[in-house]
Amino acid sequence: MEYLDVSSVQNIKALSALLSSQQEEENDEDYQDVSPYAKMGPGHIGPPTKKEKEGTSSVYAKKNSKEVWSEEEVTDGPQYDDVTDPRPQPQYEIILKQSVGTEDLFLGLSRKDPSSMCCEAMLVKIKLPDSKVTDVTLDLKEKFLDLRTPKYRLGLHLPHPVHHQEGKAQFFSEREELEVTLVMNRPLDAINMQ
Questions:
Q1: How many whole angstroms separate alpha carbon 158 and alpha carbon 143?
Q2: C-alpha–C-alpha distance, residues 10 and 20, integer Å
Q3: Is there a domain that residue 167 lies in?
Q4: pTM higher than 0.70 for the full model?
Q5: Does 177 fall in a domain?
Q6: Residue 30 falls inside a structural domain
Q7: Which of 129, 123, 124 is closest to 175 using CA atoms?
Q8: Domain containing 98 — which CATH number?
Q9: Which of 6, 17, 164, 194 would disulfide-bridge 140, Cβ 3.0–4.6 Å?
Q10: 3-state secondary structure of 124
Q11: pLDDT tens digit string along 152-176?
Q12: Which residues span the domain enclosing 168?
């Protein structure tokens, strides 16, 4: 039996070239008789995506090459963010609220706990010194609160989506404070809060 000296670099390179050429030939033979459907993987299931149809490489297709971003990339609310507006932002506080009865507090009969997932409403307290109720302009979207007065401007991205039609606002002149109560909108509340 003859032993091969594999210690030399030249012998190792020759062995590597021999093995790699045999492996490429085997792979080519395996895929010659295979249908195109056999080469598909789990990512090919379902209708082709917009990206596959257009042949684009990015997630968001840009119509104009000079555009920095597309409309899908922009979140709700930035149209209200005006960096050139010199008015200061007022102090505000967000408080999450939940309806708790004696059966929850003492007996623990419901599945409520102190976490934010069990809260039904959000209270936003906004300090507006030297302002009147007639000066306040309030606009509410599902995830954005826009408040403007002659002296202050607040563009607040809300931590949870809310029912913007069901909210209520109350201005307290003695404290110079606006309280906005918003009902939170969560998709599974009908199941979890019963």
A1: 5
A2: 16
A3: yes
A4: no
A5: yes
A6: no
A7: 129
A8: 2.60.40.790
A9: 164
A10: strand
A11: 999 888 888 898 888 899 999 999 9
A12: 78-192
